[in-house]
Design brief:
Elements: H1 2-17, H2 56-60, E1 68-78, E2 81-91, E3 96-103, H3 105-110, E4 114-122, E5 127-137, E6 141-143, E7 154-162, E8 169-172
């Protein structure tokens, strides 16, 4: 009986330390400096599965350089196989969110052109914000347009549709408030 009380008390203490599931975008500590820095302190411009706001495609989309991932990564699957990652990014400087989709090499190597979409879903508005669609592409990195959703509950959304499939395979990240 005493062991059970100790176990229950320990579990209660552990749960007290677990943060609540909702947080305002950008709350909490800022991320550590990015390892994607080139010599001399300039941000490297290579795209990456982790998401690099300094990449050429990110800059074409207008992503602010201080953007960093918030929330967990989600995965788009097709026939039970992961084919792409979906992430939500937040920029404290610009006070904007972005959706990010990274199509995995294993999918790209075995498929021709495909369609991709990326955006931010606003639970407050019940609509996609900054949503962009690319058709007949074989690119790997996709950034949505900016979403001015700082005071809203959001999730990044992404989809990939292989040629010949009637519907896209989709995923959304966890809700961030």
């Amino acid at each position: 009986m005493r062991a059970r009380k100790t176990l229950v008390a320990a579990a209660a203490c552990a749960f007290a330390l677990v943060p609540a599931t909702s947080a305002m975008a950008g709350t909490g500590p800022a991320p550590a400096p990015s390892p994607q820095r080139a010599a001399g302190g300039e941000a490297a411009t290579a795209p990456s599965a982790a998401g690099n706001p300094a990449s050429a495609r990110a800059q074409d989309a207008g992503v602010c350089l201080d953007a960093y991932q918030i929330g967990a990564t989600s995965y788009i699957t097709r026939a039970g196989v992961r084919i792409a990652s979906v992430k939500q990014f937040y920029s404290p400087e610009c006070e904007e969110n972005y959706g990010y989709v990274w199509v995995w090499d294993s999918f790209r190597e075995n498929n021709g052109d495909y369609d991709v979409s990326a955006g931010v879903y606003s639970y407050s508005r019940d609509e996609y914000v900054g949503h962009v669609t690319w058709t007949n592409t074989n690119s790997q990195e996709f950034w949505s347009d900016s979403a001015a959703t700082l005071q809203e509950c959001t999730a990044a959304v992404g989809g990939v549709r292989r040629a010949g499939d009637p519907l896209p395979n989709q995923a959304a990240t966890d809700q961030r408030c």
